[in-house]
Structures are given as structure tokens and as C-alpha cells.
Amino acid sequence: MHFRDQTIFALSSGRPPSAIAIVRVSGSEAGTALKQLAGKMPSPRVATRALLRSSSGQPIDDAVVLWFPGPASATGEDVAELHVHGGRAVLASLFAALSATKNLRAAEPGEFTRRAFENGKLDLTEAEGLDDLIHADTDRQRRQALRQLKGLLGDRARNWRKEIVEAQALIEAGIDFSDEGDVPAELIAPALERIKALLAEIKEVLAAQGRTERLREGLVVAIAGPPNVGKSTLMNQLARREVAIVSPHAGTTRDIIEVQLDLDGYPVTVIDTAGIRETSDPVEQEGVRRARARAAEADLVLWLADADTEGVEQSGTTPVWPVRNKIDLDGDKGKPEKSGAWEFRISAVRGDGLSDLIAAMVEFASDLFGANEGALITRERQRRLLEDTAAALERSVAAIAQGEELAAEDLRAAAYSLGRLLGRVDIEDILDVIFREFCIGK
Question: What is this structure's pTM?
């Protein structure tokens, strides 16, 4: 039996030990495996208690089993679910019994979702939405992923593709009846109207997205500045826990420290960098080099300093916000001075001014990611293929005057791009890349 045709199994719940563990089996031998383990076949889609036994008759666990005959299942194949106690020994014994069954093997990462995709249970944009939902760290990421999983982009793309195919049919009908007087003009005019309306709609989607696909990776904020100005203290305040060593000695931080934060639903990676200064210490020199490089790659730099340090060091095109720290030492109350040399004045020790700084970071993230709840595009792949579609439609409109054959060919290219977006044509080269990012059991 071919590797792809074998029945697969995997743990689909969290790592053991746990109260309950769910093991999923999918494929043509799922029913056989379930009957061998449970001793009988349960009614479809009815949770049934069963004592699972190995092939030698040894009891494995008192479990709850479910049977989902294909194609009415998550993957489109026969699927069995085994809900067992989540101890390591229980799972080890169950996996051993499943592995001993002919044509059963452990699933690869993302293989359940790939089979669902290949069996038409979801398109590629929905599969990407599922992957994003699994890896969502914040509420905004969750909502965006769930919209994709429900077909927000996929449904629109299918409608667009249908419109293109219908316009293409009109143009090709005009070519077929080109010898019958005014028939071609009657067919091509409505086709052209459809293409222009569709092009305007897709361009509107592309223009409205901004950088919403960046929400998957999140905002990167680097805390930079001279040594001993409170960068690590600010890092700990933002993280609300001690993630960086705080010391009165300059040069304590020598490497990059990162922490993941949730700021009002926006995913933010905050980086604490080494103090930037001239030094003869080769280890500290490397830390300074890395600090400058990481700051240049960040979306935003918080340049921390106090009254005794030099001014801001710019970081290429990356926005740099000057932050004056240690205001508790000079009696400052920590209010931002928009017209002064320092944008924010804080006390990283006491927390003065931090609420204003965090609010500004949330506003920056909102501008960067876009606040549109109806955003369609969440990945660069999706944006690129929609841009290809729009370009092909533009060529089709321009080619009408030169000949219907050229316009029809460009419409075929536009439909092809949307097919790739949905994962329905010529996408073998990207399927492995997409599905291997999934966890095992999905």
C-alpha cells in the first residue's frame, strides 16, 4: 500500500500526562483498528464506553470511543477517536497496539489536515487559517485566524474565480461566433464590464489590507540605549516578571533577551539589547554589534537614556522613540512632553509614565497591523497571488482592443492564480512547506 493510502494515527490532544488524551485514527483501516481494540463497532457519531484491549487480549484502558464513517468526517475518510486516560503508559500501550495493526502508521505533521484538504473538506486558505488558529497567542490573532478558517477569503476567491470563468466563456463564445456579425460585440461588452468590476473589487481588497498579514508574526520592539540606563528594568516591567538580570554594573546584558507580550490583543516581541557604547571587551563588542543589528530589524526602537547620557542613536529607517528614564531621581511626574526633546519620561523602577508608553505602543501596533476586522489577507502568499490575479485582469482589459484571444488567455491566467490561492491547481510545490508547519495530530 502506498504511503499516502495508509491509515494514520496520532495523539490529537496535549502532551501527557493529562486527565484525558484523544488519539485520532484516519484511513481505510480505521474501522478495523477500532473493532480490534474495542471488540465491537460503536454506532456512528455516538460516544460509547469500551474496554480497549491489545491483540493479545491484555486490557489497555477503560475508554470512550467514537466512530465517524467517511466521507462525513473531519478528513473525509473513516475516522476513529479514542478518548483514554492521559498517562504515558496508557498511550504507549495504545500506540503499540495501533502500530501492530496492518497498514497503520504514525501520522506526519499536518497529515490529518492535508487529507481534509485533499478530500475537499477545506481549501488552502482555510487550512492556513487552522494553522494560524492553533498557533494564535493573542485574541486578535485568534479572531483573524477563525475568520480565515470560516472561509472569509476562500469564499470570496471562489466567487471571483466563478466570475472570471463566466467572463472568459463570453469572450470565447464571441471568438467562436466571430463570423456572425454583431454577436461578438454583444458578448464581449458584458464580459468587459464584469472584468472591470471584478478588478476594482480585488484592487480595493489589496489597498485596504495594509500590513494585516504581519499580525501573524507580531510587532518587534527593541529596547536600546547606553549601558546602565534601565533597559532590563523596563523589560521586566513590560513583562511583569523578571526575565532580565538587573545590575548597577554597566555591561550586564551581553546577549539578546526576548519576551513575548500580549498588548491589547496585539502580539509583541520585546527585545532587551546590550548597552551601546565603545568598549575594548571583545564579548561586549559582539553584544553591541548584535544590539545594533537587532534594533535595525525591529519595527520600533525604544531608545532609553537618562539625564547624564548622550542623545538618541538612529537605527536606519526604523522609528526610534526617545524615552527618558529615572525621572524618580529628579522629581518628574512622568508625563510625556510632546514638544520637548524627550517623547516619554518614565521611571522603570516605580512604573511612572509606563501606561502612556504602553498606550502609544498599542496605537503604533494598530497602525502597523490595521484595525480592520474584515481583513481578508493574512499571509504574503495570499497577497502575492491576488496581485497576480489583478495584474492578469488588467492585461485582459488592455488586450481586448488587440484581440479577444489575448484577453481570454489573460483571464485564464487570472483564474489560475485564484486556483493556486485556493490550492486547487498546481500547488504540489507548496503543500509540503505549508503542512509540515502543523503539529503532529492535526
Answer: 0.69
